[in-house]
Design brief:
Blueprint lengths: L7 E3 L2 E3 L19 H15 L4 H15 L26 E3 L5 E3 L9 H6 L9 H13 L2 H12 L9 H9 L3 H15 L6 H12 L6
Antiparallel strand pairs: 1-2, 3-4
Helix pairs in contact: 1-2, 1-5, 2-6, 2-8
Length: about 220
């Protein structure tokens, strides 16, 4: 038997070899990221929510990251700023001046890590100052997407048993009230009735929640 054949010939027709198995998952917005990223997302969702739900939850996580990064899927995406060369980023890029003149810090990354999120995953200690906070955020920005996915998993790990649906993934990121979840579920039922939730509906719901557009 000849190994590593480029194609298998059946009769007169040559069948092309399969591409990476990660493409079989057909993840939403999967064409925006590379193979390692897609496999890592599915691996994380398998470990958090099990084999039978890994693709459903992976689609939910991909949808969240698409919205949070404005479609860039970059570890160095900073809230409210245009994407720039990661090598040009400094700690000053994370400053945000409010309308009243006070300064705060911009979120960063695949799920827009805030100070609260970084404290939750043990990467920052409250009270140590903005300079230290921005040092941590700069490190997150420069670690790369696949590496940052490990921290995305760490963020969801404590709440994994409370996250029952793909929509819950986004609610965990937003820290919205239970009322918002009820509105989303009502919207699904109203729009879809007895049909399955589609990728298009998932995208619509997430965008609506992001911009507080769910009104009844």
């Amino acid at each position: 038997m000849v190994e590593n054949m480029a194609a298998v010939v059946v009769g007169t027709q040559a069948l092309a070899p399969k591409t990476c198995f990660c493409e079989n998952y057909d993840l939403i917005w999967g064409n925006k990221v590379n193979c390692d990223f897609r496999k890592k997302v599915v691996e994380i969702c398998n470990e958090l929510w099990g084999e039978s739900r890994k693709v459903e939850m992976a689609n939910g996580l991909m949808a969240v990251m698409n919205v949070e990064t404005a479609g860039s899927f970059k570890a160095h995406q900073i809230m409210g700023r245009a994407l720039k060369d990661v090598n040009q980023l400094t700690k000053d890029d994370f400053w945000l001046t409010k309308s009243d003149g006070t300064k705060t810090s911009r979120a960063v990354g695949l799920i827009q890590f805030t100070q609260t999120a970084l404290v939750q995953i043990g990467e920052f200690t409250n009270g140590t100052g903005f300079d230290k906070l921005h040092e941590v955020k700069l490190r997150f920005a420069k670690m790369g997407e696949v590496a940052q996915l490990d921290y995305v998993k760490k963020y969801f790990q404590p709440a994994k048993d409370k996250i029952k649906t793909a929509e819950d993934i986004y609610l965990q990121v937003l820290h919205q009230a239970v009322l918002v979840k009820k509105k989303i579920m009502f919207y699904i039922l109203k729009e879809q009735k007895n049909t399955d939730k589609t990728k298009v509906l998932m995208k619509k719901i997430i965008v609506m929640v992001k911009y507080n557009a769910l009104k009844f």
